[in-house]
Structure formats: structure tokens, C-alpha cells
Write a structure and sequence with these properties.
The complex is a heterodimer. In chain A, 78% of the residues lie in helices and 0% in strands. By secondary structure, chain A is an all-alpha fold. The two termini of chain A are 46 Å apart. By secondary structure, chain B is α/β, with parallel strands linked by helices. Chain B is globular. The chains are: A mainly alpha, B alpha/beta.
Chain lengths: 279, 356
């Protein structure tokens, strides 16, 4: 059968990807613009990158943004995973769906409302706005996301394994450590990365709870936009985009290597598979 | 499990490094003193070099944060939980903050250099005798036109906007008081009119202006005018200065009938923890050299008379940005109208919007 090279499906795919990537490429292109605006390209320069390197305030905010994202998503993953396991093992169906419903309400409710309620809560409790108020609110809005990412993996899990482990004398901690966590690991990692990206690009909630000199990138860029976005922001976005690209390709590379190694093992010893099954 | 725990520690390690990074940046610049000054200012509204200079001279460490609108600044201050020592709201917001007891009265014995400020800009109705605020920048509302598309003589007043030649070509700033104000001032009424008849008259007049409007927009005006999408726009002087910097064909004029005069003043909010540092900063900003450098960087009009001598002549002689005393006399500052009339203005403005 001769495969024709042209297909509508491929064309559609290319069209969608162009649509998604062109704005970013446009932004990157103009970060090298000699003129100070995005109106027309007058010449190549790296002066915006130099200006960025000199803008210690923006660099500090970028570092702080990543710090909040890393720590908040870590804590949210721990809490969210335990929460998902808890929800999974609730006996009564009604209670389970109620808890899950309460979890999902937080996911769909507008960020503005969540942000405003955090502001009220923090000020009522006399809590100083700053790093910790941002951190806590990010943890709070990330937990439902993690729960939602981990729960399907729990449902896929073979529950007979737990019964078997208990049969063999494992206590609850051992069941959690050696059976449940390993089988939901992909979900936990996915939850972590989702929480991380949510935390990085959140504006609405963060906007309400920043203060006392602490800000994140989205809030800072928004305040600066009043004067028209300077190309320094383009330069920063370009760097962030390249970092993200590096992370994704690094992840892909590691995964590919792991897969190759596994394949090699099975190639070298064809009985390997059987050995693993028969004790 | 082991792998997950390793990952968790790796994450904690990285965030520790990030913390050290930001800690290092924060302490390597300027003074390392523990005495801090928290400033809450508009985005991109000060020359960053001046902050460093202030840190060196005074020994205070500046923690600088920005806001994008008077309202968001107000919320942060009013809610508490913050410790801003100094902030720079516009005049109507200052009036509101004074009423709600959100700003501290200034101790004038601690302020030096107030006499550098032009007396035109002191003792304004929103803050009599400057008990609470010190001028930072000021500006006007006016008309920007493109000399490639419009003759200079064709636009000198608000009344010229009604010219049928400008059908569907004027950009207006999206603000109730600004647009209704055009109708009021064209007939010589006050911008703060609380007279229903005058307001209705103004609105009837604006009815005729509606066909000339191309759009009611906010910050986009700057971009549209630079890209020559429209020949005429009604906007604020600071915005106009930015546009003219980018496109040399643009010019700014103050209408003959008069216009709005706005202020951004420094105030010490109730949340202040370090008023001494705030006074030090106010005194620093009042110095002529500092005010001149800041005005040169931002491009807005400085109220500092002594600083004007230090600015390039082509800036200070520009009648449109530093109008003569006679013109300044015709300018009017917005006063707080009270909820009833704010609503009235908004209703009329909404009706104006519906005309298109």
C-alpha cells in the first residue's frame, strides 16, 4: 500500500501547532529588537538582555517565583496524595462523592474569589502578607489539582495487591510504602508538575496576597504593563521559554533512556520475563 | 518511594539555592542596614538609580513594590497585613483615604524643601495646606493629534472635536468624568458640576460628538496613536509624552477651554512602620537635582520649581507640558462628587457609550 504524504489530518495538526507557537516566536523575535517597542523591527540587539541582567529587582522576583512554585507544589503534592488515598478508601459511597465534590468545587471556583477570600482570611488572622501568605495560598489551590491527578491512578491500581500484601503480614505503613505509592507514582509526579505550572502562572490569587515587597513575576509584569510592556519582559519570557524547553527535552531524554535500558534487558535475556513471573 | 523522597529533597535543595540567590541579590545592592523603607508605587514610576542613591545616602534599605491602579493600592492598604511606609496615589484617592483615615498627617517640621514646589500645586482642594500629601508628579488631560493627518490649526479646543471632518476618527479615554467633563468644559461649566441642568446640557452636546468617536479605550490609546490608527485622541499628558517619544508626528495640546489637572502625591499610609524613613525619602525626592533626574526619566511634569531650572529648556519651555500660570489657572482638579453624583456621571457616560 502506498502511503500518500499529504493528509488533512497532518495539515490540521501543523496548523494548530503554528497557531500555538507563533505568538511565542513573535515575542522572542522582538526581544532582539533595537527599537523599544514591538511596532516594527529596526535591527538586532541584545541590549534588552543586558538591561535584564542589570535589573536585580526583576531577577530577584523571578527567583522568588520559582521558589514559591517549587515548595508550594511539593507540600501540595504530599497533602494532596495523602488526601486522594484517604478519599479512595472512604467506605461509604455518599461520603466519598461528597468529599470529591467539595474538592472539585475549589477547582472550578474563580481565582478572584479564592484570592479575595484568602486576603480576608490573612488580614483577619493578622497574618502579614508576603512570602508565606503567597506560599500558603498556592499550596491551598494546588491541593485539589493533585488530588484529581492522583485519584485515577488509585482507581487503576489492582486492589488485590493490597489484600495480598496484608495476607503476607504487611502492616499499613508497609502497604502504603511498597504497594500503593509505587503504583501511583506517575500520578504523583504528574500532580507535582501540574501544581508547579499552576503556581508559576497564577495571577489572580497571588495578586491579592502579595505585599510588603514580595511579588511574583505575573503580578510584577502586570504592574509594569501600565507603561507599555518593555522588551525586557520579552527577554525574560524568552529565557523562561528556553528553560521550559530544556526541562521538557531533558525529561523526554531521561524517559527514552530508561525505556532503552528496559528493552535491552529483555533483549539480552529472553527468559527474564518468565523468571519474573515464576517465583 | 525512595526515588520520590530523593526528588523531594532535590526540590528543597534547589529552592534553598534560589533563596540564597535572592538573599544575596537583596543584600549586595545598596545599604545593608536593617532599617527598611517600604515603598508602594505605580509600576515604572521612578528612576531606579534614584532608589540606589537614596539607599547610599540615607542608609535605609528600600523594599519597593508596585501597583497598577489606585483601587488595588487602596485595597492593600485598607485591608491591612501590609507595612507600606510610603505610597503615591492620585488626588481623588487621597481625598478618599483622608476621609477614611487611612493616611497619617504630615509633620511639616520634618520636611525640608517644600518651598521648592511651585505654590500653584500646593494647598489643593483635595488636601488643604498639604496636611497629608506632598506632590510627586502632575499632569493634564488633553488632545493628541498626528500632524500628518490633521492640520495644527484645526485643533485648539474641545469644541474642535465636533468638527464633522473627524467622523469616526477620535479615540477617547474610557473614563466617565473625562468624557462628561469635555461636554461640561465646552460650555464653560465646572468639571465638578453637581447641577443636573448643566449635566443634561453637557450630555445633549455630547450626543453630537458620538459620531466622531472611533473608540473608547484605555491603555491601548498609546499603541494605536503610535501606529497611526487614528488622527486624534483624548488622553492624559503622561501617556502623550510616551507616545510623542515613539512617534514624532504626534503633538499634545491643552484645550483653550481648560482641562483637568491631576496629581500623584506622596502620602504616608496608616500602615507605616517607619515614618522617619518615609520623611527621609520625601525630603530626598524634594531635592531639585533628584526631582529633575526623575522627571527626565519618567517624562511627566514635575511640580518642583527648582528642578525645572535643571531640566533641558526644550522640556520646560514646552507650553503643553509646563503651561503658563494663566493656563494652569484654567485647569481644574477633580473633587470627590459623592456616591449620588458619581452614579449620575457613570449613567450619563453609559448612555453616551450606547449612542454608538
Amino acid at each position: 500500500m502506498i502511503k500518500s504524504k499529504f493528509s488533512w489530518a497532518n495539515l490540521y495538526l501543523i496548523f494548530i501547532f503554528v497557531l500555538l507557537y507563533v505568538p511565542i516566536l513573535y515575542l522572542i523575535f522582538y526581544s532582539f529588537n533595537q527599537a523599544g517597542t514591538m511596532n516594527e523591527f529596526t535591527g538586532f540587539t541584545t541590549e534588552h538582555y543586558e538591561a535584564l541582567a542589570g535589573d536585580t529587582r526583576l531577577i530577584r522576583i523571578a527567583l522568588d517565583t520559582f521558589r514559591v512554585a517549587l515548595v508550594s507544589s511539593l507540600l501540595a503534592t504530599v497533602i494532596g496524595t495523602l488526601g486522594a488515598i484517604g478519599i479512595f478508601f472512604v467506605r461509604q459511597r455518599r461520603t466519598q462523592s461528597t468529599i470529591l465534590g467539595l474538592n472539585n468545587v475549589l477547582l472550578v471556583s474563580p481565582d478572584v474569589i479564592i484570592g479575595a477570600s484568602f486576603l480576608l482570611l490573612f488580614t483577619m488572622a493578622g497574618f502579614r502578607l508576603g512570602f508565606y501568605s503567597v506560599l500558603f495560598s498556592h499550596i491551598a489551590f494546588s491541593i485539589p489539582i493533585v488530588v484529581l491527578m492522583v485519584l485515577p491512578k488509585l482507581q487503576e491500581m489492582n486492589t488485590n495487591m493490597i489484600t495480598a500484601a496484608k495476607d503476607l503480614g504487611a502492616n499499613n505503613w508497609q502497604v502504603l510504602k511498597s504497594v500503593i505509592i509505587p503504583s501511583i507514582k506517575p500520578g504523583i509526579l504528574a500532580g507535582y508538575f501540574m501544581a508547579f505550572t499552576y503556581s508559576i502562572d497564577d495571577f489572580a490569587v497571588t495578586f491579592f496576597v502579595t505585599g510588603n515587597g514580595f511579588a511574583t513575576l505575573s503580578v510584577e509584569i502586570y504592574s509594569r504593563a501600565r507603561q507599555g510592556i518593555s522588551l525586557e519582559i520579552n527577554a525574560l519570557s524568552t529565557i523562561l521559554f528556553i528553560v521550559a524547553l530544556g526541562l521538557v527535552s531533558g525529561y523526554y531524554f531521561v524517559q527514552q533512556q530508561q525505556r532503552n535500558r528496559k528493552r535491552k534487558l529483555t533483549d539480552v535475556d529472553p527468559t527474564n520475563h518468565q523468571k519474573a513471573v515464576t517465583p | 518511594m525512595k526515588q520520590l523522597i530523593q526528588l523531594a529533597f532535590a526540590v528543597l535543595g534547589i529552592s534553598g539555592v534560589l533563596y540564597l540567590g535572592s538573599f544575596f541579590i537583596e543584600h549586595s545592592q545598596g545599604a545593608s542596614g536593617t532599617d527598611t523603607l517600604n515603598i508602594f508605587n505605580w509600576g515604572d514610576y521612578i528612576d531606579p538609580e534614584l532608589l540606589e542613591q537614596f539607599e547610599e545616602e540615607s542608609g535605609y534599605r528600600v523594599v519597593y513594590e508596585t501597583f497598577d491602579s489606585n483601587e488595588s493600592m487602596y485595597t492593600k492598604v485598607q485591608q491591612g497585613g501590609t507595612a507600606y511606609d510610603l505610597t503615591i496615589p492620585s488626588e481623588y484617592m487621597i481625598e478618599r483615604m483622608i476621609e477614611e483615615d487611612l493616611v497619617l498627617p504630615m509633620d511639616h517640621s520634618k520636611i525640608t524643601g517644600l518651598d521648592n514646589i511651585d505654590s500653584e500645586f500646593l494647598d489643593q482642594p483635595f488636601d488643604p495646606d498639604n496636611q497629608y500629601s506632598i506632590p510627586y508628579f502632575w499632569g493634564t488631560l488633553g488632545i493628541v493629534y498626528n500632524d500628518q493627518m490633521v492640520n495644527e490649526e484645526d485643533i485648539t479646543s474641545w469644541g474642535d472635536l465636533w468638527n464633522p471632518e473627524f467622523k469616526e476618527s477620535i479615540l477617547f479615554i474610557d473614563g466617565a468624568r473625562e468624557v462628561i467633563g469635555i461636554g461640561l468644559q465646552t460650555q464653560g461649566y465646572s468639571l465638578n458640576s453637581k447641577n443636573d441642568e448643566e449635566l443634561n446640557e453637557a450630555f445633549e452636546l455630547l450626543r453630537g460628538l458620538a459620531p466622531n468617536a472611533k473608540a473608547l479605550v484605555a491603555d491601548e490609546i498609546k499603541m494605536y496613536m503610535i501606529q497611526e490608527e487614528a488622527p486624534v485622541a483624548v488622553t492624559f499628558s503622561g501617556e502623550a509624552a510616551d507616545m510623542m517619544w515613539e512617534n514624532e508626528s504626534l503633538h499634545y495640546i491643552l484645550p483653550e477651554e481648560g482641562s483637568n489637572l491631576w496629581f500623584d502625591n506622596m502620602v504616608i499610609p496608616k500602615t507605616a512602620q517607619n515614618t522617619e524613613a518615609a520623611y527621609a525619602f520625601i525630603n530626598f525626592m524634594l531635592q531639585p537635582e533628584v526631582a529633575a533626574q526623575n522627571a527626565d526619566y519618567i517624562g511627566y511634569s514635575t511640580p518642583n520649581k527648582a528642578a525645572m531650572d535643571l531640566l533641558p529648556e526644550e522640556t520646560t519651555e514646552d507650553e503643553q507640558f509646563y503651561p503658563s500660570a494663566e493656563t494652569v489657572g484654567k485647569l481644574e482638579v477633580y473633587e470627590d462628587l459623592g456616591p449620588e453624583y458619581i452614579e449620575k456621571y457613570n449613567d450619563l457616560f453609559l448612555e453616551f457609550k450606547m449612542l454608538r
